[in-house]
Amino acid sequence: MVTRVGNDIYFDDLADPQFGRLQGLVLKLGNLAKTEFSIEKVLEDARKTTGLSDFGPEGFREPLQVLLDAYQSDALMSPIGATQVYNDLVRCASNRLIIQDRRKKCPDLDAIRINRPLNISGLPRSGTTHLVNLLAADSRFQKLPLWEAQEPFCAPGKEKAPLGLKFRSKMLNRLLKNNDSDIDDPRYYRCSLRWSGMKMMGPELAAMHPMNPDHIHEELELMTFDFGCNQFEWTAMVPQYRDYYFGRDQIPHYEYMRDVLKLMQYERKDDRPWVLKCVQNPEQLPALKHALPDATVIFTHRDPVAVIQSCSTMIAWGHRMLRTQVDPRMVIDYWTDRFERLLRKCVKDRDIWGPEQSMDVLFHEYMADQEGTVAKIYDHYGWEFTDQARSEIRGFLDSHKRGKHGRVRYKLEEHFGVSAEEIRERFEFYFKRFPVEIEV
């Protein structure tokens, strides 16, 4: 159950989920589903969805098969979890077909230039999401809202949303008091339905991580269409895939992401700089440098213990629907190890991005002076902080105050059986490099 005390939110049943009537009904119905983790079935469903058949270079099949094997071998994945990850794979494969079709129609992809992107890179829960959305309020940037990140292009002949899709989306928006939009695009409505479903199953999600269609999101989504990135670790327990990812050169996947951005830029007829963000980048700085060599990278830094307790709470909460058993200690052990590996790579490779193309932002300083942090970023980037930009950014800050949807309060030792000191001692190397403020 969830306890609210004023604006504070406490998750009291991470290890022993207590479901409401709606969640219980969805679980009962979801348990009837049967999922076949077959590569040919995924690809065939994608062909049927799009009406296309050319997936492009065949290198994507290997990581896709590794993912399918990981899902198949997970005895604790619930039927709902299996349905969700399967549908995501079909969506990714469908996007791959559509992107390949678009590439054939682009006269010279290599000639398209991505002009000085501003890239936010850092741990999740370290301010990356808020900072990219704050900067994206500046109309001088191109940005990547979630509905386009998850589906950059429509399939040929499927540019109009069916009436049934519109109706379901708008009715749920009214029921859940979501913001509606006048964007008449089937991709927007599909994204809106996914957000509504997430809110119905976990209403407190908005307090932790918004996933509404207009929310500015990560270019990491674009790499999922190549089946090569750590995004898949967030939606399922896939240690086999994690180990495969560690042993694989990520440059081809970053090149794929770059080329999708080029295609989007070509079809938008827009050459403004992109503002981007990716929580995978700190462990893939050489690949990022290869793909976007003239980017300016803003590194966000925060107490890893605060990050780990927040991420582990969010993931363990999500497991109630996606897994038949929830083991909070397994979750926090996995992500403590995962973030240690990521930050060791970050510390090792940080200087690949020299001072003229990078800047470090400490979470506690950013939270204390958000507008001042933006001013410093613009000064480093070589942009004037114009009156219009200041007005746009202040408008975003006024409408997105921290804790607007409630503030999650954590119980690290009670919920996870581990102390802050035990976790912190593993990150001495990080504290020595970056003077983050201890929060927990």
* Lateral strand order in the biggest sheet: 4-3-5-6
**How many helices?**
22
Give me the count of strands.
Answer: 7
CATH class of the largest domain: Alpha Beta
Average of per-residue pLDDT values: 94
Given as residue ranges, the uncertain stretches (5+ residues, pLDDT < 50) are: none
Q: Gap between N and C termini, in Å?
A: 24 Å
Name the CATH superfamily classification of the largest domain. P-loop containing nucleotide triphosphate hydrolases
Q: What sort of overall outline do the alpha carbons produce when their principal axes are compared?
A: globular
The CATH topology name of the largest domain reads Rossmann fold
Give the tally of structural domains: 2
β-strand percent reads 5-15%
Helix content: 40-55%
Order of helices and strands: EEHHHHEHHHHHHHHHEHEHHEHHHEHHH
Rounded radius of gyration (Å): 21 Å
Could you describe the largest sheet, including whether it forms a barrel? 4 strands, parallel
CATH architecture of the largest domain: 3-Layer(aba) Sandwich
Structure notes:
With 440 residues, the protein is an alpha/beta fold. It has two domains: 2-15 and 116-144 and 221-433, P-loop containing nucleotide triphosphate hydrolases (Rossmann fold, 3-Layer(aba) Sandwich); 146-215, no CATH class. The protein has helices at 21-30, 39-50, 61-72, 79-105, 128-136, 146-150, 163-176, 186-201, 205-208, 220-224, 232-235, 239-246, 251-268, 285-291, 304-322, 328-349, 363-368, 370-381, 387-399, 412-416, 420-424, 428-433; strands at residues 2-5, 8-11, 118-122, 275-278, 296-301, 358-362, 407-409. The strands form two sheets. A four-stranded parallel beta sheet has the order 4-3-5-6. The chain has a three-stranded mixed beta sheet with strand order 1-2-7, with no helix packed on it. Helix 2 crosses helix 4, helix 7 packs parallel to helix 8 (186-201) and helix 13 packs parallel to helix 14. The longest helix has 27 residues, at 79-105. The two termini are 24 Å apart. The model has no long low-confidence stretch (mean pLDDT 94).
